[in-house]
Amino acid sequence: MIGPPDIEGSSRQDEDAPIVARVRAGDVDAYAILVSRYRDAAVRYAYRMLGDLSDAEDVTQDAFIRAYRSVTRDQEPVRFEAWLFKILVNRCRTAAARRSRRRKLFVEDHLGVDRWAAQQAQDSRREGETDFEMDEELDRAMARLNDAQREAFLLKHVNEMTYEDMATLTGTPIPALKMRVSRACETLRACLAEVYHVS
Amino acid sequence: MYRDRQERSLDQEQGDEVIRHAAARLRVPLPIDSGFDARVMTAVRAEARVAKAGSGHRVVRGWWTGVALASVAALVLLAVRSQIGSFHTGTPNPSTRGLPTTGATASTITATQGRPGLQRVRFEFVTPEVGNVRRVTIVGSFNGWNTSVTPLRSLGRGRWATEVPLSPGRYTYQFVINGRQWVPDPGAPRDADSDFGTSNSVVTVAQGGMT
Questions:
Q1: DSSP 8-state secondary structure symbol assigned to residue A107
Q2: N or C: which end of chain B has fewer CB within 10 A?
Q3: In the prediction, which pLDDT does A7 show?
């Protein structure tokens, strides 16, 4: 069971519930709505945890398939998003552990970098190299966080989850999560204050 | 006291411009592969078909699996010992020239009964090059040689697998590594006809199983 949802979470829950009910009733195609709704956030989280866009897409695909299996065969989830992210967090942990055994570096992502660079080049809103350079600094700063800190920071500040939800889906006590987020913020602040011209 | 300090620290974080800026940049959409949703839904529909077929599956022609596994073990051993890059024979497929070879590979195929008239054929691909293989799909006469609609799932340690529902018939196929490198199945017979220089692998699904 996931803790008290915030307003946005409650709204999403209301929107997801009838779709989940359709999927459980055998409407497979309805699941595409949930995939489309949570694809970006899920891949983004996985990418930031794994540092490789191709791996992130694979892990997210696996999480969606496992979530579908659970939704149709097990109990009805109280909130699909939290259900999906609980699976995704575990899949990322497994993938990261496997990759650390292969000694692959966090920043080693040629495919992701290439595609990212291509998108940046096409982004007409960009004005010069400044944002790109700052993003590179951000990548380096994120790579300095350990996996637990990166996980907690992303769930709290990027996915904007409550500590109650984070505790449920990570299995980590709230005080420990707060400490990890605090440490992550300290590291990012130290690395990025000058880059962002903030004192 | 300790908790109060934590709460104050949290307030600082939430008001912190650096963190807000970083979080905003981390929320910028990624260039996700445009075929992502289709791939997920293909796998989900396959999952649904398997579930619908029920739990009464039985392995057909178990002897074939044993033979296949034995030949695969021999192939892997042979490849590792002789440092063969892959099991390509003849002229390389033009689309794969210049690409690194995949490494020793092996596969198994088994068939189980699914819906009436369909056999669930399981394709398994094994490679020792765990770090270099990031995506494996299968292309064949059963999916229009589409490189993205039938992905194999990673089972870990270089093992990948998928199940394809096939009606009785003869099918040709290859594996596609990382979306680029076409590799015939070392554990299956080859097609005598070759359109591109590298012969395709063949699987024949009979009424009662697979040959």
A1: T
A2: N
A3: 38
pTM (2 decimals)? Answer: 0.53
What's the CA gap between A94 and B148, in Å, rounded?
Answer: 25
Q: What number of residues does chain A have?
A: 199
Which residues 6+ apart lie within 8 Å of A90 measured at CB?
Answer: none
For B180, half-sphere exposure in the C-beta direction (CA atoms, 13 angstrom radius) is 12
Is residue B42 within 8 A of residue B165, CB to CB? The reply is no
| CB-CB contact of B187 with B86 (8 Å) | no
Query: Is the Cα torsion angle B190, B194, B196, B198 positive or negative in sign?
Result: positive
Give yes or no for a contact between B96 and B35, defined as CB atoms under 8 angstroms apart: no
Distance, CA of B164 to CA of B172 (rounded, Å):
13
Q: What is the DSSP letter of B151?
A: B
| Integer Cα distance of B127 and B133 in angstroms | 8
* Token pair of A188 as six digits: 């990012």
A51: number of Cβ within 10 Å:
23
ipTM over 0.85: no
pLDDT of residue B66: 34
Q: Are B109 and B203 in contact (CB under 8 A)?
A: yes
List, edge to edge, every strand of the sheet that includes B59-60.
B59-60, B106-113, B119-126, B159-166, B153-156
DSSP state of A74: S
B51 in contact with A, Cβ within 8 Å? yes
Q: What is the pLDDT of residues A14-59, one digit of tens each?
A: 788 889 989 988 899 999 999 999 999 999 999 999 887 888 898 9
Contacts B26 to A, Cβ<8 Å: 44, 48, 138, 142, 154, 157-158
Query: How far, in Å, CA of A57 to CA of A133, rounded?
Result: 25
Closest CA to B151 of B178, B188, B111: B178
**Whether B102 contacts B191, CB under 8 Å:** no
Buried b (16+ CB within 10 A) or exposed e, B126-146: bbbbbeebbbbbbbbebbeee
Phi/psi for A182 (5° steps) reads -60, -45
> Are B21 and A198 a contacting pair at CB < 8 A?
yes
Contact A58 B51 (CB under 8 A): no
Of A29, A43, A65, the CB nearest to B32: A43
